[in-house]
Amino acid sequence: EEVLLTWDSTNSEINGYIIEWHDELEKDPNKRSWDRITNTTEWISHKGIFKHFKCYNFSVYPLCKDEIKKPTSISVYFHESVPSTGPQAEIENAGTDYAIIT
């Protein structure tokens, strides 16, 4: 499976982008992945590089005359999983036609 990122650009001085992605829990900056693209505002990942049920951070850095500008970032789950635990509810003061649930 793949990830597709798309974005809009109105700045004619942009001559490319750097796409950065990493597992949200990974704190080592050396374990981040990068890709450089030109002439498009769309990026498709290679198949099979993302693990199910993990959250990934993606950043798109514009390049203006080979100077890296401020990125736009998003966090995305690659297939979400069911919650590990559900909410705990308690019933208080239950009557025949009412109940207080906390």
TrEMBL record:
It comes from the Eukaryota. This is Fibronectin type-III domain-containing protein. It comes from Micrurus surinamensis. The lineage of its organism: Eukaryota, Metazoa, Chordata, Craniata, Vertebrata.
